[in-house]
Amino acid sequence: MDTGKLMAGAFALVLVLSACKKPASEMVSAPGITSYSVTGIVQRLESDGKTVVIKHQAIPGYMVAMTMPFEVKETNELKLVKAGDMVTFRMMVATNDAWIEKLHAYGATNVDAAPVHQSVRQVREVNPLAVGDQMPDYTFTNQLGRIVKLSDFKGQALAFTFFFTRCPFPTFCPRLSGHFSDVAKSMASASNGPTNWHLMSISFDPENDTPAKLKAYATVYHYDPARWDFVTGAMIDIDAITEQFGMEYVYRAGTYDHKLRTVVVDANGKIQQIIIGNEWTVDELVKELVKAAKPDAAQEKK
Question: Nearest 10 degrees: CA dihedral of 185, 191, 193, 196?
């Protein structure tokens, strides 16, 4: 037998087997950046041309399995994949930023046969809320195990957002929590600024986010419990308030797919601003809170 041909054949077989094998997660560190090798399934490509939604596997020691949007810096990579593709990619995580690269398809499923809205769970019938609407009352439990109602903050400017403590991705929940921390510092240190304001972070993961876990999370952000509550509540209430603001999220077998919303309610209990996404700045929210802390003209005359 030709030894050269035998060795060439064996090498080709190794390449085929390596290509068919599903890669496992691994972590590679670089100065200021941690890179994770991840596999997942493309759910959809967003219309902005730079975002892909991927249902990815758990990353041990970093993140549970989730379905979430990722941005790429090299948009040409998205031309090589479509909904339903099984993919490998590098998740690049910096202190305040994250993105993916080296996106590569290695198989396919029929995920694109299912409409996107099928994954959104519908609950009790509630009406969508818009700017100018009166904010309904909701009851939650905070990081100290105390009952907190939205109506407790009537007369105060209230800003709230949605999160869950197991979300480590820098541009998602940690970014919102970090911004809230900076907003609190700015509001508290402002000379001649309003004093009637409060922040609230609402977890949509009550099964995991117990008061003890909420308190541990809050401590990381150096929160003042007199100014900032970390809360969660009954699923029927969590589902209702998130639905009213279009904050869709899905939880299946440890996998989350969620959007981002931040809401400002004025001192009269009316919705002043609904902010979509994570691109808002600390200064923008501070200005909204200062404005929301002032009673309207009708209230001032009373």
Answer: 70
Assess whether 54 and 191 both reside in one domain. no
Residues 141 and 78 in one domain: no
The helix (H) or strand (E) run that includes residue 231 is strand 228-232
In the block, which residue shows the tokens 């519908």? Answer: 122
Full domain range(s) for residue 40: 23-117
Asked which of 117, 144, 160 is the last residue of a domain, the reply is 117
What CA–CA distance (Å, rounded) separates 25 from 275? Answer: 34
- Whether 104 and 253 map to the same domain: the answer is no
How distant, in Å, are the alpha carbons of 266, 268, 292, 301 from that of 298?
Answer: 14, 10, 14, 5
Condensed to tens digits (0 to 9), the pLDDT of residues 136-190 reads 999 999 999 999 999 999 999 999 999 999 888 888 899 999 999 999 999 999 9
Pair 185, 69 in one domain: no
User: What does pTM read for this prediction?
Assistant: 0.70
